[in-house]
């Protein structure tokens, strides 16, 4: 078997979790991610019949039975992935019954998957139903998007319009806009179900006064989605501190931008 630490998906996660931590999105043990892996990506690195232990989950995951996920552990720090990935990360296979996962690698010191695992699995089911290429679900505490959930109206249209107008790239990156939940208790199936429902329409979901959930085809795309939205939120924060908006990208300009880059802004969000 090859050294799993040389696997492309492990290297990708090690690199980008370090970047995410350095961006200030993962204080202490905050944040988590799950990465849907293909069996052929694993066979050179793991004996897929060797189960380290079985871990129950409080969720019916039959829809994902037999699928493999790389998942961050509960209580673990993103800043430590680059130094000790086998301690922070685990590779899991959803059992046929769907009420537990088999640990194939990782969680070396007796750790378990993130408490948000049910929310992740629900979101994967939702995203796969609309985009079979979706592989990553990611939760973080992006600073300025979090701040906006205190200062801006928690309305998806108005929140999205602010982000679109703060950076030309934003509409191109997330033309469907940003979803927003009511405040819900983290680590519960309730917030997982609400997030998954939004994931059928959006790839970026704001959890007010907490953080956000994002989805993408790979970790780099998912990171880029959050990075772009957070840049717009940062610009908005700076503009407000400078005295407020005096000029902006117009709705007509945003409409033309969508045509130029072959993306369709969410219906009803532009006044054109």
A few lines on this structure:
With 272 residues, the chain is α+β, with helices and mostly antiparallel strands. It has two domains: 1-114, Class II aldolase/adducin N-terminal domain (L-fuculose-1-phosphate Aldolase), CATH 3.40.225; 116-272, L-fuculose-1-phosphate Aldolase (3-Layer(aba) Sandwich). It has helices at 8-22, 39-42, 85-88, 117-130, 143-151, 156-166, 168-173, 189-199, 219-241, 251-260, and strands at 32-37, 53-56, 68-72, 89-94, 100-106, 136-140, 179-180, 204-207, 211-216.
Radius of gyration of CA atoms, rounded to a whole number: 19 Å
Oligomerization category of the chains in this entry: single chain
What gross morphology would you assign? Answer: elongated
Helices, by number, come to: 10
Mean pLDDT: 96
Helix content: 25-40%
Low-confidence stretches: none
Output the helix-strand order.
Answer: HEHEEHEEHEHHHEHEEHH
Q: How many domains in all?
A: 2
| Known CATH architecture of the largest domain | 3-Layer(aba) Sandwich
Query: Termini distance?
Result: 58 Å
| CATH topology tier name of the largest domain | L-fuculose-1-phosphate Aldolase
Q: What spatial order of strands do you see in the largest sheet?
A: 2-5-4-3-1-6-9-8-7
**Number of DSSP-assigned strands:** 9
Written account of the structure:
The mean pLDDT is 96. The chain has 2 domains: 1-114, Class II aldolase/adducin N-terminal domain (L-fuculose-1-phosphate Aldolase, 3-Layer(aba) Sandwich); 116-272, Class II aldolase/adducin N-terminal domain (L-fuculose-1-phosphate Aldolase). β4 (89-94) and β5 form a beta hairpin. The protein has 10 helices and 9 strands. The protein has 272 residues and is α+β, with helices and mostly antiparallel strands.
């Amino acid at each position: 078997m090859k050294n799993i630490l040389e696997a492309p998906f492990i290297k990708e996660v090690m690199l980008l979790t370090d970047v995410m931590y350095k961006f200030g999105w993962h204080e202490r043990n905050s944040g988590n991610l799950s990465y849907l892996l293909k069996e052929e990506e694993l066979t050179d690195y793991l004996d897929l019949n060797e189960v380290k232990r079985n871990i129950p989950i409080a969720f019916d995951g039959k829809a994902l039975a037999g699928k493999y996920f790389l998942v961050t552990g509960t209580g673990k720090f993103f800043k430590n992935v680059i130094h000790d990935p086998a301690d922070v990360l685990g590779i899991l296979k959803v059992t046929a019954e769907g009420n537990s996962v088999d640990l194939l690698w990782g969680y070396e010191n007796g750790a378990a998957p993130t408490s948000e695992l049910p929310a992740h699995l629900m979101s994967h089911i939702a995203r796969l139903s609309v985009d079979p290429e979706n592989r990553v679900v990611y939760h973080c505490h992006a600073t300025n998007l979090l701040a906006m959930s205190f200062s801006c109206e928690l309305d998806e249209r108005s929140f999205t319009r602010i982000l679109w107008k703060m950076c030309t790239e934003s509409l191109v990156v997330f033309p469907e806009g940003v979803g927003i939940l009511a405040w819900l208790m983290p680590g519960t199936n309730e917030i997982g179900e609400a997030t998954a429902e939004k994931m059928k329409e959006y790839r970026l979901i704001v959890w007010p006064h907490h953080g956000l959930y994002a989805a993408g085809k790979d970790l780099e795309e998912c990171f880029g989605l959050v990075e772009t939205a957070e840049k717009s939120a940062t610009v908005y924060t700076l503009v407000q501190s400078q005295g407020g908006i005096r000029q902006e990208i117009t709705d007509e300009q945003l409409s033309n931008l969508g045509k130029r880059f072959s993306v369709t802004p969410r219906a009803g969000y532009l006044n054109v």
